[in-house]
Amino acid sequence: MGVTVRKPLIARIYWPGKKELAYNDVFIDGEAGSVVTTYEGNHFVETGAFVRSALVGRGHEWDDQNRFNNAWDARSSHAMELDGELIGWLTALGLGSVSSAASGAGYLHTCKPVPIATLTQPPSATIVQKQTDEALYLKYSGICIDEFTISGKRGTGADSWLQASWTEIGSGAVVDGSGVSTPSTTVTTPIKFSEVSVATIGAAGAINVIDRLVDFTFKHGNNLQADKGYLAGSSASASPASIVDAAPVRQRLEYGDRRGSTTLEITFERTRSASTERTNFRAGTSWAIVLTCPGKLISGSTYETWKLTIPVAKVDTFEPDWDDQSGTSKVLLVPDYDSGTAAPFKIEVTNARSALLVAAA
Question: Could you say which of 74, 90, 123, 312 would form a disulfide bridge with 336 (CB–CB 3.0 to 4.6 Å)?
């Protein structure tokens, strides 16, 4: 008789409204705000930069005790559906600049890429992770978003939920997180790409093309300079027990060149009478794009929402699909800087949380 073995899930505890007071300044245990259960593969990977000397072992050709750890590193990649809480955390932490204001029964958070002249490195966070069938908690600090992708497609049920994938880079510091109080589980509703979404494209007076929009993928990268964050004198332990423990962790994590790192790929059903998208592409016409996706009702007439605005975008690639006669065209757009927005794009998130990226005490 066969036996079904179910692997335990991985729980991640977030402080969704907060950022570290300074890079790698670990959150205190009592401020945890939400818990998200994820699956195998969505976990941190800790590595050491182990190197060996040019000498061989003691009288033989194999590595022996001449290996040293030059640095600690911790990274993670995630992919999951987005609700109003998680999409606010990801967008604010991934872009670095956010302003919040009351909006109906909720709060509107306007997020933009932070100018490097204002802040040379992104905000950082602390995350606790545990496997649900174990008592081992690990607290990772200095977590920054290296890149993230948000996508949606036309469909019903779970097919219409917004999906996100992102990569996190930490300082490499990992401590015991067993003192963290696990927040109670909250049932959330994913943000959807649905018939009540809005997608306007064009110059002033743009038309809503949601009936022709098949899918979209928005991607932003921070190009973090991971190898330049190790400074002399930093260590993972004040009293290291060995040379391995004494290896440094990152003391900073700065932005790299973000030019060209943001793209929006969208697929249209082509109109049979004309190809407005191709005409604009050939003419070099700039597009203005607004894409709004709703979530659950907060109260009254206020819903959780995710809204992407690109005031000036240029078509980089136009690809009609002739192979299966699907009548679709794939368009890759790259945002230009907009002086009115003071950024190439902005993302507005409406949810019930009053503030994001508040410096932890």
Answer: 312
* Residue 96: pLDDT over 90: yes
Question: In angstroms, what is the C-alpha Rg of the chain?
Answer: 23
Task: Kindly indicate the confidence band of residue 307, based on its pLDDT and cuts at 50, 70 and 90.
Answer: very high
Max Cα–Cα distance, the chain, nearest Å: 80
**Span between the terminal Cα atoms of the chain, in Å:** 56
Residue type, 67: R
Q: How many CA atoms lie within 13 A of 257 on its CB side?
A: 2
Contacts of range 154-157, beta carbons closer than 8 Å, 24 or more positions apart: 154/193, 154/213, 154/214, 154/215, 155/193
Between 361 and 347, whose confidence is greater? 347
80 — pLDDT class (breaks 50, 70, 90): confident
Q: Whole-model pTM above 0.85? A: yes
Residues 6+ away with beta carbon under 8 Å from 145: 90, 93, 94, 122, 166, 167, 168, 222
